[in-house]
Automatic annotation (TrEMBL), chain A:
Keywords: Chaperone, Coiled coil. Heterohexamer of two PFD-alpha type and four PFD-beta type subunits. This is Prefoldin subunit 4. Binds specifically to cytosolic chaperonin (c-CPN) and transfers target proteins to it. Binds to nascent polypeptide chain and promotes folding in an environment in which there are many competing pathways for nonnative proteins. Signal peptide: none annotated. Residues 34-117 form a coiled coil. SUPFAM superfamilies: Prefoldin. The keyword Chaperone applies.
UniProtKB/TrEMBL annotation, chain B:
It holds the Pfam family Prefoldin. Heterohexamer of two PFD-alpha type and four PFD-beta type subunits. It comes from Sphagnum troendelagicum. Binds specifically to cytosolic chaperonin (c-CPN) and transfers target proteins to it. Binds to nascent polypeptide chain and promotes folding in an environment in which there are many competing pathways for nonnative proteins. SUPFAM superfamilies: Prefoldin. This is Prefoldin subunit 3. CDD domains: Prefoldin_3. Keywords: Chaperone. Belongs to the prefoldin subunit alpha family.
Amino acid sequence: MVMRGGAKGDGVETEVTWEDQQNINLFGRINSKFHELEDEIKAKKDMAENLEDASNELILADEEEVRYQIGEVFSHMPKDEVEERLETLKEENTQELEKLNKEKEQVLAQMADLKKILYGKFNDSINLEED
Amino acid sequence: MASSFQRRGIPVASFVEDVPTFLQQYNSDPSTALTALQEKLQQYKIAEMKLLGQKRDLQSKIPDMKKCLQIVGTLLAKRGSGEVMKMDFEVAEGIYSQAQFEDTNSVCLWLGANVMLEYTCEEAMELLTKNLDTANTSLAAMVEDLYFLRDQITTTEVTIARVFNWDVHQRRKQRSLKVDESS
């Protein structure tokens, strides 16, 4: 999080009101939310890939019975049941991913709005960019 | 206005309306004020780190709970079907053995502290679901607390920057005054 009133000191002193402070705080919150979302989205994408890999392997597998990991143990299961389970998991994963992506868009829009307000008031006395 | 309400014993960083008035507490000495503020900021950061650690711990437990639920769920689903289930389980690292079990009505849950208790599948399901719910609730509370801490950190950071800027501004004014006098 980068949030420093400009130490450049261009000689112009801008009053910071409680409202500005609240906006800055909100921006801080949303920014950390944004990073959490990014992490979650990445995890879901990895999951989607793994599930895809698993179903591809399953298509290639000759055996009728495969081992499916539940928790710590591998359960012997008929191939079609595993296929079914994978499909449900994929479905769930896709839905969750969509939800997260929507949230991310909202968060980005909110951040853009706040940036407009805060930069509008403080110009380059404030830095809301990452690094 | 900033409410002085607390959360988990974390004090609220009060918003400074006017820098000179605020500095009066510190005999109008910006550097004393800055040191005090930095100290406060450090305390907030330590609290944030602790809370983040707790959150990570809890977050890592949730997938385990889900795994347990999955197993019990599978057992429940197979029950009564008369199907014999074959499972490979790990006996030691990298060594697996096979187990077969028919209709089972109970599972043993590891409660911690070297205690394991046998539950019927329904009861186990109930207990595990409850645990997962509790974990999710406290996780949500933790996220709220973290946001709250974030606010306090940001407020303090902004205050530091304002005091600093005010000081720079003040010095510049004095310097230009001196230049005026000498000319």
